[in-house]
Amino acid sequence: MTYRSDTYGERTADEYDALYSDFVPSDAQIRLLAGLAGDGPAVEIGSGTGRVTLPLAGHVPVLAVDASEEMTRQLAKKTGDLPITPITADAAHYVADRRVDLVCALFNTFFLLASEATQRAFLRNAARMLTDQGTLLIETFIPRPGQRLPDGPHPGVFPEQRSVVSLKRRSVDTVVLFAAENHPDAQEFHYNEIVFRHGQPVSVVPGQMRYWKPEQIDALAGEAGLLLRERWADWDRTPYEAAASAKHISLYRLAGQNL
Ligand SMILES: C[S@@+](CC[C@H](N)C(=O)[O-])C[C@H]1O[C@@H](n2cnc3c(N)ncnc32)[C@H](O)[C@@H]1O
């Protein structure tokens, strides 16, 4: 299965900044990514409307790849003089025309690639793009049923039962609900963010994830020729703890390289 514009991206683009603009990347995150990217360019897969791309481009050129034309269009409106190249392409097919020191898929984008075939193709493509000392960085939540997702100040719930509706945010004029369904056998997570704004039509933003535990991602990466180098619990490089961490930031390098 490749990218479907009716499940994510196109319909999310209009709401994305309203829903996530206060999930601001920390200086530590931007410094860490810029440090890994060397002289650049960095390849960001699933760059969206540029939440991370824009501050990162203050340090290093970015090839900003997203399957959604609307996401790419919205990013292009914001780039100004920053060294950002917005590219509409599916992660299943995209390979940069040069080798790079950093390929990254941030904020659960790896899960949002939505099918195992796309995820495997992305990992193979990342291995093809990386320099010998390069890094593939993946940031995703740990699929731990019943917990709030580590998704910034207004997280949804990853359901323990099959489905759950939780409150993401409310203000005098706006309520955002998160309606989520977990399919543990298929390791699929389907959700809608439902936005009620006083006096406006209801907006329904769908998402679909194919999720994995960290060690399962390591196995997929291994099949693509990539080896885990480091795993942290956050952007401050707090050591990852399998029993407690809510998310992981995992760094892979080409297998066979002595670093
Ligand atoms: C959670 S958003 C992350 C956006 C941004 N990186 C951030 O941190 O805010 C995931 C992005 O992945 C994109 N995406 C989904 N499937 C994709 C695919 N197959 N190839 C490339 N991008 C994809 C979506 O359009 C969306 O913009």
Main features:
four-stranded antiparallel sheet; 259 residues; Rossmann fold; 32% strand; alpha/beta; seven-stranded mixed sheet; binds S-adenosylmethionine
What's the topology here?
Blueprint: H1 10-20, H2 27-37, E1 42-45, H3 53-56, E2 62-66, H4 69-76, E3 84-88, E4 100-105, H5 109-112, H6 116-129, E5 130-141, E6 163-170, E7 174-183, E8 188-197, E9 203-210, H7 214-223, E10 226-232, E11 247-254
Parallel strand pairs: 1-2, 1-4, 2-3, 4-5
Antiparallel strand pairs: 5-11, 6-7, 7-8, 8-9, 10-11
Helix pairs in contact: 1-4
Bound molecules: S-adenosylmethionine (SAM).
CATH homologous superfamily placement of one domain: Vaccinia Virus protein VP39
Task: Indicate the percent of residues in helices.
Answer: 10-25%
Topology-level CATH name of one domain: Rossmann fold
Major sheet description: 7 strands, mixed
Helix/strand-derived class? alpha/beta
Report how far apart the termini are: 35 Å
Shape: globular
Bound molecules: S-adenosylmethionine
Spans with pLDDT under 50 lasting ≥5 residues? none
What is the helix tally? 7
CATH architecture verdict of one domain: 3-Layer(aba) Sandwich
CATH secondary-structure class of one domain: Alpha Beta
Cα-atom radius of gyration: 18 Å
- What percentage of the residues does DSSP assign to strands (E)? 25-35%
Return the average pLDDT rounded to an integer.
92
Spatial strand sequence of the major β-sheet: 3-2-1-4-5-11-10
What is the strand tally?
11
Along the chain, the helix and strand elements come as: HHEHEHEEHHEEEEEHEE
